[in-house]
Amino acid sequence: MDWNKLWHIVKNKYVAASLIFAVLIIFLDQNNLFVISRLRREVRHLRTEEKSARRAIVADSIHAVNLVTNLDTIERFAREEYLMKRPDEDVYIFND
Question: Which pairs from 24-28 meet CB under 8 Å and 24+ separation?
Answer without folding.
Answer: none
